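Entry 12.
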Amino acid sequence: MVDLIYAVRGEAVPADYHALLDAALRAALPWLEEEPLAGVHGLRTSPARDQIALLPRRARLTLRLPEKCVVDARVLENRTLCLRDATLGLSAMRVKPLVAADTIYADMVTLGASDEVEFSDLLQQALYALDVRAWHICGRQRALLTHDGPAIGYPVVLHDLKPAASLHVQRLGIGPGRRLGCGLFVPHKTITGLD
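Predicted 3D structure (tokens):
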């Protein structure tokens, strides 16, 4: 698995852009839906106002794909994606390998839980299923509009990971919704002194 990074030209996107971006990417890359581990990192945006989120000048679109897909993903270079009334112009692609880190972070993980205690239990079960031992911290509950309606999830930090476990979680992710930015982990600042 690698991250494919495209610089983005555009001023704003709808606040609920995740499903719109997924649809635009599937139209441009029809094979994307057949890649079970394919993921799309969330765009960095300003807080939404009037259902619009502003893009910074250095905005990036990042796809997480199997290395075998790199050549096929080059078709996105210099393409424009339409997200309702907004457009995203993409530039040349840069390939970034995954890097092991003892602390990794996901903006949102959805596991079908209605509260943090249930979510934490399900997250621990998911980690055991991956044969990964790690401490976790959950952020505040968030909602995300998916193709099937709203989904509830939490930002998650996993820490005290061994290098192999870190890469394993980054490759496979946790929970559904990878193409909507859910369950995708990236290296994060180290956390120390936690019990």
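Annotation: The chain has a mean pLDDT of 91. Residues 158 and 169 are 10 Å apart (CA to CA).
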